[in-house]
Amino acid sequence: MPADKEARPLASPWKEFLTELDGMLDEPLELHCIGGFVFTYFYGLPRTTGDIDYYTAIPVNLNLDEVAGQGSPLHTEFGFTVWPLQTSRKITQPG
Questions:
Q1: pLDDT top residue among 89 and 64
Q2: Which helix (H) or strand (E) holds 75?
Q3: Is the Cα torsion angle 9, 11, 16, 20 positive or negative in sign?
Q4: How many domains does the chain have?
Q5: Less crowded by CB within 10 Å, the N or C end of the chain?
Q6: Residue 54 and residue 82: Cα distance in Å, rounded?
Q7: Is residue 2 part of a domain?
């Protein structure tokens, strides 16, 4: 992550996507994100990803897949989704 961690304005189309997502929810949402979206945001790289990967959503009881997942109205409109990090692989140390 860059040394300066100050908030930056969100670039298009992320700003519009997240603004619409926010407007569809009944309560505030906090996403802890990873992946290409984070690089795009912090380093100003061009949009290189089709989703916002997250490892935690608060509150946890929101059905983000229904609202902004694959096949959702937001996915149809913007062409990308929010995507929960899921892994079933056991990570082991080599050797």
A1: 64
A2: helix 73-78
A3: negative
A4: 1
A5: C
A6: 7
A7: no
Q: Scanning the structure block, which residue is given the tokens 């937001």? A: 74
92, pLDDT greater than 70: no
What's the chain's average pLDDT?
A: 83
Would you say residue 95 lies in a domain?
no
Beta bridge partners of 32: 56
Task: Compute CA 11 distance to the chain's CA centroid, rounded to the nearest angstrom.
Answer: 14
In a domain, 5, yes or no: no
Residue with tokens 């913007």: 78
The C-alpha R_g of the chain, in whole angstroms, comes to 15
Domain that holds residue 63: 14-84
